[in-house]
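Weekly modeling sync, notes
Attendees: S.R. (lead), two postdocs, one rotation student

Agenda item 3: backlog of single-chain predictions. S.R. asked that every request posted to the team notebook include the full sequence so nobody has to chase files. The rotation student volunteered to paste the first one in as an example of the format we agreed on. Action items at the bottom.

Example entry:
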Amino acid sequence: MYLKENLKLMRKRMKRSQTEVATMMDITRSAYNSYENGVAEPSIGLLIRLADFYKVNLDKLVRIDLSKLGEFKLSEIEKGYDVDITGSKLRVISTTVDANDNENVELVPIRAKAGYTAGYADPSYIKVLPAFNMPFLSENKKYRTFPISGDSMPPVLDKAWVTGEYLQDWTYIDNGKPYIVITKDDGIVFKVLYSRIKEDGTIMLCSTNSSYEPYSVGVSDILELWKFVNYINPRFEEPSNSDSDNLGTAIRNLQKEVGVMHQKMDSIDSKI
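Predicted structure, as returned to the notebook:
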């Protein structure tokens, strides 16, 4: 229960005094003060009015520590948007079926990749995507295939095709497993995920290529999650040699250290 903390936080963000809020709620200042201090609890009717006043979903106002949200999420809440900060929000997906009413596996062509973040929820956009069936996949789950670019996720190569199973409830992320992530800013990315939804409302995205640094994305910035099922590489990949892999990693680390040393030397030279 975070009601008292959230009432105080949202009031201060609105730059209102306890007296001002109490007057707007038609209660005494001492009564409102008791709610912020946790001495008393408002009635359900007043609680609903407070949630409406602060433009916060009632469940979030009571159960979520809003102080741990970033400025972006808080500002979105204050604008009246019901920001998903738990990952468990019900999501409805646009889909297509074959002549027998079986779910298709839609394929997002490379030419349509850039537009997916805008059309992913539009039935007319999904309807024109190429569709096919994979008989070895479950008939009771939803799948989609995406184009992948870059070298951040070996053994999946650049220009590979990755198929994922639609994940509706993000609280069921399997940490350390690969997912296709559809984000507002970066579009379609393929990464290994680690959920931090309960801690700070974010998900950490990691690459299997150690040259790429992990980064975090807020739940409210993610549009869809698809759990990795299989992939098709555009060319045959030679078996890796563990010794050479270790050597490659050592060389990359050495290059980073040398780069840092050069930067330091350039900084010293500029001061002389």
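Discussion: group reviewed the output briefly. The CA atoms of residues 138 and 165 lie 10 Å apart.
Action items: rotation student to repeat for the remaining queue; S.R. to check formatting next week.
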